Amino acid sequence: MRKLTFAMNVTLDGYIAAPGDDLGWSVPSDESFQWWSDRVDATSLALYGRKLWETMSSHWPTADQQPGATPAQIEFARRWRDMPKVVFSSTISTVDWNARLVTGDAVTEITRLKAEDGGPMDISSGTLAAAAMRAGLIDEYALVTHPVLVGGGTPFFTALDNWVKLNLVETRTFPGGVVLTRYETRR
């Protein structure tokens, strides 16, 4: 059975995007960017919702060819392109960059993917993760918390039907007061 992690940058007040889907508050330091790049390299399958897919696929496929691209950006772009991806959406009709599209029930497909043999999966979408949380499918939460309050937007956590008890497995501080906390779901 595969492990499923919900990993995102998050504001101190709990949002993964500010109003208007603004992500300007989440600019990573070199150290935290390397952590994300290593995470992408270790992920065998990434699960995206439409919004984040459109953001990522509009930049990373060619980011390594942009003037001034840093070695870290070049490495991340290569890793991101190579990583298999599943995009969940009922409003787009095609995806590319080593991805396949799922238009049916997300919880059914995520349950099927978890049951397969294979390496770890990451889920990157507030809406998609909310459905997986309510279904009890998430094994780990990785929050990269930025010291900013945005007052609204897309929440990291959603309303749940039941409590989810967690065990802290890692904390790490990055430059600029950014803090990584990783929790495993207690089963």
Shape call: globular
Arrangement of strands in the largest sheet: 5-4-3-6-1-7-10-9
SSE pattern, N- to C-terminal: EEHEHHEEHEHEEEE
- Structural class computed from helices and strand pairing: alpha/beta
Average pLDDT rating: 93
Count of DSSP E strands?
10
| Number of helical stretches of at least 4 residues | 5
Task: Please summarize the sheet with the most strands.
Answer: 8 strands, mixed
Gyration radius, rounded: 16 Å
Organism: Actinomadura chokoriensis
Protein name: Dihydrofolate reductase family protein
Overview of this protein structure:
The chain is α/β, with parallel strands linked by helices and 187 residues long. It is built from five helices and ten strands, in the order ββαβααββαβαββββ. An eight-stranded mixed sheet has the order 5-4-3-6-1-7-10-9, sandwiched between helices. Strands 2-8 form a two-stranded antiparallel ribbon. Strand 9 (166-174) and strand 10 form a beta hairpin. The chain is globular, with a radius of gyration of 16 Å. The two termini are 14 Å apart. InterPro entries: DHFR-like_dom_sf, RibDG_C, Riboflavin_Biosynth_HTPR. Residues 2-180 form the Bacterial bifunctional deaminase-reductase C-terminal domain. This is Dihydrofolate reductase family protein.
Summary of the model, kept short:
The protein has 5 helices and 10 strands; from the N terminus they run ββαβααββαβαββββ. The protein has 187 residues and is of the alpha/beta class. The radius of gyration is 16 Å and the shape is globular.
